[in-house]
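BUG: 3D viewer hangs when loading the predicted structure for this chain

Environment: internal workstation, default settings.
Expected: structure renders.
Actual: progress bar stalls at 90%.

Input used:
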Amino acid sequence: HKPEGYITTVSDPQGRPTVMDLVTGVRERVYPVGRLDCATSGLLLLTNDGELAYRLLHPRFESEKVYLVTVEGGVGAAALAALRRGVMLKDGPTAPARVEVIGQGAGQTRLRLTIHEGRKRQVRRMLAAVGHPVIKLVRVAMGPLRLAGLAPGQWRHLTPSEIEELRRYVGLEP
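C-alpha cells produced before the viewer hung:
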C-alpha cells in the first residue's frame, strides 16, 4: 500500500523517499509495475516478472485499475458522460472510463473510476479536464488484486493462488 509522499521508482537521485524504502527482507530484485504519483496512495504491485508487468501495463491487454477519487465540486451528468466517452487530453483522447458516484457533500464528490490505460497522471488530468480537480486519489484494485487489509506503507507477498489468478488474468500460464 503505497502511501502519499513516496516516489514510485527503484531509486531517486534527488534523495526523496521511494517505495523501495518500504520493502525490507525481500531477496529477489523487484520493481514497481507502473507508477502512482507522489500524492497518490494505494495498491502498487512489485515484481520480478517482466512479462507479467508488461501485460499489466500495456493498454492492449486492457488490465483494469480501479481508483477511489475525491474531487472538488458536485459532479453532474455531463462530466460523468464525458468520462464514460473518453476525455481529450493534450496527448490524445483517453479510452472510456467506468465511473460511478459513491458520495457527495460539502462541495466534494467521491467517485469509483475504472480505467485500463496508465498514462502519466491520467486520472488527475481526466478529472481536471471535466472541471473537477482531484483532492484525494487511491488505487484500490489492479486486475484481480485488491488493496483491502493493508495500511499505508505495509506490504505483503502475494499468495500462490493470487499469482495464478493474476497470470491467468493477463493471459499467461499460471
